[in-house]
Design goal:
By secondary structure, this protein is of the alpha+beta class. The chain folds into 2 domains: 10-223, 2-Layer Sandwich (Alpha-Beta Plaits), CATH 3.30.70.20; 224-256. Helix content is 29%, strand content 18%. The chain is built from 7 helices and 10 strands. The chain has a 4-stranded mixed beta sheet. Strand 4 (98-100) and strand 5 form a beta hairpin. The chain is globular, with a radius of gyration of 23 Å.
Length: 267
């Protein structure tokens, strides 16, 4: 599995207290990555498309919630890859298509992807999406082509409200903690999401509600035990088994030589 030494960890901070659901980030992601739109149908929600797709790597989730006084409120959440420090998808990928970038991004090289969908199953955030047409998987890249050239991600550049920020891990954690303190002082149940999960993520949230309130946001996500067993036990044993079979076949060839088919009519 190909890996890259992380030289400087960069983090995208998403302050949900400032998100207006404008979807500027969603459009910017599609434009920068040349992702075509897909035909969708009305599902009774302003959210469109209904979920992340192989050609939609950033999605604004619209959630209508009833408050204690009976009134309704919107909750918006920008969804996409969290670029985990300990990424389940990297652990299980058998082809080396998934690896770590020098800024902390989790890369996905479609040229190496074999379409096994292990990453889709393993991801605790349910992010990677498989395309049955190309038979490979896709997800957010953290705009690695931009951030390694001194630019910020396209979604961050397009955000009009200051909901999205980008900087070093230390800067973004400090900014997130400061914002949480401000919101808590106003009586809002704010928290910083992502810092303490899967050894830290490179996309973090300032939440204004408890984790369980947000649709499709995992509470206390972690690397599944099945993924740990696959990486540390099953995968090495499988490779040893393959090696043993190949070795036995080679030994048989050396001792016995190639097996020639019998000639027709021979005794």
């Amino acid at each position: 599995m190909a890996t890259t030494k992380i030289k400087e960890e960069m983090v995208k901070l998403i302050d949900l207290s400032k998100c207006t659901g404008c979807r500027g980030c969603q459009v910017a992601c599609k434009n920068w990555n040349s992702q075509p739109a897909s035909q969708t149908t009305n599902t009774g929600s302003y959210q469109n498309p209904p979920d992340l797709q192989h050609n939609t790597w950033t999605l604004i989730r619209f959630q209508e919630r009833e408050k204690e006084d009976g009134s309704l409120e919107w909750i918006f959440r920008k969804d996409g890859c969290f670029h985990c420090t300990d990424a389940s998808c990297v652990r299980v990928c058998p082809s080396g298509a998934l690896s770590y970038g020098e800024k902390g991004a989790v890369r996905l090289n479609q040229e190496l992807c074999i379409g096994c969908k292990y990453c889709v199953i393993a991801c605790p955030f349910n992010v990677p999406r498989y395309d049955p047409v190309t038979e490979v998987t896709y997800k957010c890249t953290l705009c690695e082509d931009r951030i390694t050239n001194g630019m910020i991600p396209a979604c961050v550049k397009a955000c009009p409200t200051g909901c999205l920020s980008f900087g070093t891990k230390e800067q973004m954690i400090a900014k997130g903690e400061q914002r949480v303190t401000q919101l808590v002082e106003k009586g809002i149940a704010a928290s910083l999401y992502g810092r303490d999960y899967v050894k830290g993520t490179h996309v973090m949230y300032v939440l204004t509600e408890q984790e369980k309130v947000y649709a499709k946001l995992p509470v206390s996500p972690h690397v599944p035990i099945t993924v740990k067993l696959w990486r540390n036990v099953a995968k090495p044993l499988g490779l040893l088994s393959i090696g043993a079979v190949v070795g036995a076949a080679l030994l048989h060839y050396i001792i016995k030589g190639p097996k020639h088919p019998k000639e027709e009519g021979g005794d």
